[in-house]
Amino acid sequence: MKKITTFFAMLPLLLFGSNIQVTNVQVTPNTSTNEAVITFDLSWDNGWRIAGGTEFMDGAWVFIKYRTMAMPEWKHGFVSSSNIVSGILGYEADPRQLGVKFMPSVDTVGTINGSVGITISNLLSTPYGLEVQVHAVEMVKIPSSPYYVGDYGDYSWHQYGSNNDEPYHVTQSDTIYRTQGGIDHLNNSSVPYVVASTEEFWVMKYEVSQDQFVSFLNSLSRTQQDNAVPLDLSTSSNNVFALSETATPSFRNGIRIDAGFDTVSGPLTFYCDLNNNSVANENTDGLNIACNYLSPDQLYDYLHWAGLQAMTEFDYEKCSRGPLFPNADEFAWGTSDIAPIDFTSSSMLQNSGAPNETVQVKMNYRAHLHTNTSSPFTGPIRCGVLAESNTTTRIGASASYYGLQDLTGNVGEYVLIQYGYAEILGVTFNPDTLNGEHGFNFNARDYSLVKGGSNIYALSSTATVSICVSATTNDIPVYMNGGRGRL
């Protein structure tokens, strides 16, 4: 049995940080029932559950990929049961059986850990030579509650009816019609309604990292890989960086393949190589940097593969401000104050590309937003770099109401446009229709917006919580953008 483990790396007092780990993976296949029991240790630093987790709690989404001797392509493992062996973990089963959601079982702030077991069933072949990957993604609970969209500021995208000065209060899950004095979607007066929800959901604590996207690419067939990256994999080229289509890393995206890829018939091996020395996944290769150069289709494909779904623009606003009444032109940490990081010298960023990459100058209201495109570190930085284990305030960590990182800055985040969401809710993005596999086709860009600004856009008109930029806008190129997903 071969074991494969994938590592991903104010209000109530929270600690901010990361370092999720899956270790000690053991696999016990049952050839008579086409099942397998997978046990492993799961832990992450600086987790939290406050007052029973009613409003504030983080967790981890765990999903399984597997393959066998008879079926060499990676497939999604459907979870039939789970159990906690030891530790301070609880879990919630996923009704789609695409994974398991783990969270603290007791009120705590600090390291969350435990030993767990997962059974995957209905394997598509007899599990001889079974290999598994255990993927873990840090998540944050967004509780069921009312919330506001729009912020009565200069750049607000939504408003109450025709009143430019009043945000809309979403008090229940409903279809909101303009003709009933409901929400007004600015710049699109023909929209008759939007679909809004106040239900609980969980969202990724950080933006998708380059390491996570590489794991996705390396689980695909060659045909799927051809469709998943913009680089033409069938033609000889010196451009080995697959997302930027360049010969060297561009805008700090280090995802690459080896030269001669056009002569390889099977799946290619992608890896991170920010230092451009052709050695895979070294300490300084930027594995934990937010993944840019993503189109909406690429982001949504990754989320689909992970059993997640895209966020909507309303999701983004609720994640940012929670139930609080908006401040005009506010950023994700709740005020209009901002201290953009402008990398005018290489000393501003320390331990470049490493898991402990950090910003030298710490201050409140920090965000990786700047316009100096000639600076030495133009491009995204490490996911959650502004939050450290000793950071205990929302403005100090530049965190959202619920503790999410980088909702303002780093990479622009694709979200589904709210009125378009109503059109495709029952087709592609309904969680009940997701199957954990790669591959769906529709013009995602037409249904998407970009929120939160990015590392080369400092303008408040593109980065505040209540503003969106169309994903079809020519001056919002893909090298600026990425995103995150939700359950």
Automatic annotation (TrEMBL):
Key words of the record: Signal
Matches recorded under Gene3D superfamilies: paralog of FGE (formylglycine-generating enzyme)
Supply the SUPFAM superfamilies for this chain. Answer: C-type lectin-like
Signal sequence span is 1-23
**InterPro entries noted in UniProt:** CTDL_fold, SUMF_sf
Record's superkingdom? Bacteria
> Record keywords: Signal included?
yes
Return the protein name: Uncharacterized protein
Species of origin? Phaeocystidibacter marisrubri
